[in-house]
Amino acid sequence: MPRLIDRDGEIVDRWIPSPAAPAAIPPGFGALLPAARWRAERSRWIASPLPLGVRLEPHDEPAELVSDFPRLSLIAVAFPVFTDGRGYSLARVLRDRDGWLGELRAVGDILRDQLFYLARCGFDSFELADGSDAAAAVDAFSDYSVVYQAGARLPLSERRPAIR
User: Fold this and answer.
1) pLDDT class for 22, splitting at 50, 70, 90?
2) Class (C level, CATH) for 3-159
């Protein structure tokens, strides 16, 4: 079973991937649906009181979800292979262009060496492969102490007003 982390450590995954129906979700959990299924069954799921999430594949268009942002709690972005960088672009588009403020999760073929850069693009949580060392993965967020480019979340110097 994959392990889930954020910048602080291992976290409990409270999302059921591709559930059969809203009634199949236990209390305290949410439904994580593939984007194609979300498009096909949107009205069925949006009417439920459950927390809802959508999983985007590299070819999915994130703009299709913008009108549903108020109802969604999670967007997961798939990385089918670690060499496929389209997920980084999807994250930046979701954060910068579309204004997604909810949880953004990287799922799939995620390596420790990618975690710092994934976080810089706006990801909040990260699904690690079976057998991964969660503590070593969390250490990846402190690999670099200085960055030169702005990330999806602005550096502290740009978040506060300049001192005059």
Assistant:
1) confident
2) alpha beta
